Records
---
Amino acid sequence: MARTKKCRRVCCRPACRRFQAESAERSVELPLDELEAMRLVDLEQMEQGKASARMGISRGTIQRLLYSGRGKVVSALVSGMNIVIPDGDFEPPEDCTQHQPACRHCCRRSEQNQTHKTGERKMIIAATCENEEIFQHFGHTPSFAIFEIQDGLISGMQIVPTGDSGHGALAGFLKEHNVDVLLCGGIGGGAQAALAENGIKVVGGVSGNVIKAVGEYLAGELKTNPDFQCSHHHHDHEHGGECHGHRNGCKCHD
């Protein structure tokens, strides 16, 4: 007896069902489930395991849908065929409130819910910040830009003032905000040690716009100044030379 085909959940209903090639006589059919698989994995950059759970199918099935759908699209483009997307017997996901083209909100919300259910924690990146630029002296930073990262993408951002927090208190301040990684300009050895004790990775020698810096860090393209560490000085001894990587006429202390 043939196995009953499981109903697949499809959130995307494309506004255009036919793409006409110039002077084409042949067409290729791209079913909605193949389009949905490509949308989730290729457009939304969702992992195949999460995409398969989203559609209510196995990982092996979503791999077959991707292989078939991608082959049809490439074949149509190379051979100059029309692409037709027929309707089908599919149901929307239970938490889908949009069910329309570019239904990104529901997919992102579902992905976040899955992460919450499995107990996984989002990655938190902080950056020393003033006027949305990387502030160049960790100990005097007026605020931190704190980013929530989900699957390698920025999902939220807030600017949090530091108040009167000094060097020693800033490590605890960041720990309270569950920060995993700190991007900053210059920073002393003592501050680095305090952050390391709290499990916070330090990436020093960073400059420029905070959002751009975080994006480049996530992409593995962040350029830093290797000479970023402030030398230790006693509090009654002013910094006689320039502070490497610093601006604002700062005096460096750990």
---
Amino acid sequence: MNRLHITDLPLPGLKLVERQRLGDARGYFSRLFCARELAECGWDKPIAQINFSHTAQCGTVRGLHYQLPPHAEKKLVQCLRGRIWDVAVDIRRGSSTFLHWHAETLSAENGRALLVPEGFAHGFQTLSDDVDLLYLHSEAYVPASEGGLHVNDPRLAIAWPLPMAALSDRDAGLPAASPDFGGIA
């Protein structure tokens, strides 16, 4: 029996994962990851790394991050506490949706996750204080393969839902997609 309901989103390869919650008076049970079910939508590698982030302030933006091949990664992102507006940007060279973005609200209450495929930049804005995220990665982090795009890149024109409360120096220093930015293979 499938415990994950997987929906295609407007950008090819990007998926919304909704988890079935089995509950009673004690609470509920929910499956976070199922290799068999996720393989049907493109997760074809083992989990190489699991990361956790805590963001204290509502309106904080993190991102837009990606890893270059051969360390390009799939990410499964879930909000464990609070709410976020989660954004994925298609940066695949030759894609019909190159530099298009899509966002979903993820929260502890809705139990949704975003499956971000290889070739996408990822970031989010917190919609509440004290947000905890869990990230499952198909590849380990490799600093030399790290890439990113600025969250206010005019070519992307991301419509962040709140005024930006905080942005790290690292993320503030990320470049915009130059006119000759051709994406990643």
